[in-house]
Amino acid sequence: MRNIFDQYSQPENRLTHALISSLNEDKELLSSFIKKFCNNYFSDVSSLKIDQQTLPGLKSLQNLEGDKKGLPDGVIYNDEKCLIIECKINLELTEDQLIRHERTVKRKGFDNTFGLTITKDPISNINLKNWIHITWKEVYNWAHEEKSKSNWSLKLLDYFNVAENKMVEDEYLTEGSITEFNGIHFDKENEYTYLEGKRLLKLLIKKIKLNKELEKQLNIDLKSKGRGSIKDEGGVWDILTFNNSKKTNFTSQPHATIHISPENAGMHLAIPNGMSGKYKKNLKSLTWAKFEEMVFNIAKNYSDNFNNNSAFRPSIEIHQRRWPSINAKYFSDGKINFDLRTAFKEFASMTKPEIKVQKEWLKIVYDFIQNKNSNIQIGFGAEFYFTKHNMINNKEGDQIIARSLLSLKPLVDVLFK
User: Fold this and answer.
1) Residues 228 and 314 grouped into a single domain
2) Cα separation of 380 and 199, whole Å?
3) Same-domain check for residues 344 and 300
4) Beta strand 74-77 with 49-52: parallel, antiparallel or unpaired?
5) Predicted TM-score (pTM) of this structure
6) How is residue 242 annotated by DSSP?
7) Domain coverage including residue 301
8) Residue 188 lies in a domain
9) What's the number of domains the chain is made of?
10) How far is CA 65 from CA 104, 146, 164, in A?
11) For the residues of 286-346, what is the DSSP string, one character each?
12) Using one digit for the tens of pLDDT, what is the confidence trace for 160-207?
């Protein structure tokens, strides 16, 4: 079904229409918008009128979307004042364009004008009196703050997500974003989709790369480019690499994988089958006692960071796969994924219902590390499930993933010693 805001062909016009329509339908939302971004320019919003792609009071002036040259994207006005809105995503915004809009509105009898630009990236090269510049991300975050108060804010948020997905898919938005990571909210009413998962993963990775603790404590390369193409594999995933590593294919070195699937999101520190000899040597040099101690310290870190939230599960995964071709979906020949707390009574006893201790799972991992002779990948990490105790359905969700990665410092220390 076509979205109620899809009334135009140009992405800028669609997004502007979504914002203007939402403000027009909800006066409380309009009041919040004016207070947030326009220095309380209007003292009373009850009498305000809102038009798009035209001049104040001339709704019939503009019928053709491609013939709007010289007209502002939106106007909010009363009998005395007029707020001019100009919006861009990829197209260039010039000082001369804003001056023309202001002059045109003033010729319609408005001596008191104020201007607001909304762009993908911050503006630093335009400095005009009575003009304020904000980004689409700021509008998105504002709408997110208002979602519990306004149904139209929810509609606007949904359209932001839909619009960004479509712009990325159409390759209109190749750099940057118009939204920001505010958590992962998949549930029965908001089911996982590949495009939404891909959008959220991109925003999540971008925000995680702002975390300097990952670089300081683990030497994560916060400037790494990741995988590039994110495919639909029943879920989506991307990588973070280490500064210690040589700039080769990520499958030849330890790396962190960040994933979002229909059931959960999480991360694992991957020990790939093709990992170079020095990392293998460091890991294989561990005696059983030292290996057990390392995993115990990881389990303790997870316990200290997340207690025993039922939506969180620290895990170790062993996976054997093969690919018929480079771009084809893989065949899974064997997989083990278990809760690492099964190895230690100290942590197993803290769960409800209580986990039964079964150290054999951990011994299997140690045996694979010492004796494996097939294309098996091992990963240490955690999953965070989309349940009522969801830990990542808010704007601090990136911190949860980062803390999970930091919990694996004992393993990183061994690999890179």
Assistant:
1) yes
2) 25
3) yes
4) antiparallel
5) 0.84
6) B
7) 194-415
8) no
9) 2
10) 19, 30, 21
11) --HHHHHHHHHHHHHHHHHHHTT-TTEEEEEEEEEEE-SSTTSPPEEEEEEEEEGGGG-HH
12) 998 998 888 888 888 889 999 999 989 888 899 999 999 999 999 999
